[in-house]
């Protein structure tokens, strides 16, 4: 299913349809502030494994990432001290993936690893969906290679290509072709692992 949602004012009924897909164990393709993402309810282990299979990721070894609605949701699923909180507040919502130490609230499938990637995109559509769901979603980028091709930024082409895999593709307009900036916050000083779309404000 291809569902149009306008980023300026996400329609609550459309958002509820996307949430229903997630709650029923479905896969969603959605816009972010970088490239389009693919993900699911992080508490639906079998669906997380389906997404991992699509990306060629070993769920036992992967560094998982989740999309959170706000800073308090981040604090529920990751260990956030005062200095990290201030860093997150300066930079989020934004085009970043912050690597943090995970908390005990993470799903069983995530507990084999110490860290979790945290995203809080500057995109009203996916944040409205996460807010309505009530907890984060597991996320990874749709891109399959280093170069992002046209079909990976155009939601209609994404639907044509991945309609059999994902139960729903959200059309939120054309996506970006630059990935997020990845920042490791598990040591004393934050370290940029990958420079992406946005500059980090320290």
Structural write-up:
This protein has 202 residues and is of the alpha/beta class. The protein has one domain: DHBP synthase (Alpha-Beta Complex). Helices cover 29% and strands 21% of the residues. It has six helices and ten strands, in the order E-H-E-E-H-E-H-H-E-E-H-E-H-E-E-E. It has helices spanning 12-23, 45-55, 71-77, 82-91, 124-133, 155-162, and strands spanning 2-4, 28-30, 37-41, 65-67, 96-101, 115-119, 137-141, 168-171, 181-184, 191-194. It has a ten-stranded mixed β-sheet with strand order 1-8-2-3-7-4-6-5-9-10, sandwiched between helices. The protein is globular, with a radius of gyration of 16 Å.
CATH superfamily: DHBP synthase
Fraction of residues in β-strands = 15-25%
CATH class: Alpha Beta
CATH architecture: Alpha-Beta Complex
Form type: globular
State the order of secondary-structure elements, H for helix, E for strand. EHEEHEHHEEHEHEEE
Number of domains: 1
How many DSSP-defined strands? 10
End-to-end C-alpha gap: 41 Å
Please identify the structural class as seen in this structure. alpha/beta
Can you give the mean pLDDT? 92
Largest sheet: 10 strands, mixed
């Amino acid at each position: 299913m291809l569902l149009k949602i306008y980023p300026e004012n996400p329609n609550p009924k459309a958002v509820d349809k996307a949430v229903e897909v997630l709650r029923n164990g479905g896969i969603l393709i959605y816009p972010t502030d970088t490239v389009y993402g693919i993900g699911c309810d992080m508490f639906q282990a079998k669906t997380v494994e389906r997404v991992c299979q699509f990306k060629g990721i070993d769920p036992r070894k992967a560094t998982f990432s989740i999309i959170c609605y706000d800073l308090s949701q981040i604090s529920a699923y990751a260990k956030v001290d005062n200095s990290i909180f201030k860093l997150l507040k300066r930079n989020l919502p934004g085009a970043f993936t912050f690597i943090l130490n995970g908390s005990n609230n993470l799903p069983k499938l995530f507990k084999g690893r110490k860290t979790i990637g945290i995203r809080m995109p500057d995109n009203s559509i996916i944040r409205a969906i996460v807010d309505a769901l009530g907890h984060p979603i597991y996320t990874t980028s749709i891109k399959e290679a280093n170069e992002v091709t046209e079909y990976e930024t155009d939601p209609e082409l994404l639907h044509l290509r991945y309609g059999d895999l994902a139960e729903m593709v959200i059309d939120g307009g054309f996506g970006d072709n630059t990935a997020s900036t990845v920042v490791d916050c598990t040591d004393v000083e934050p370290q940029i692992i990958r420079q992406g779309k946005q500059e980090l404000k320290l």
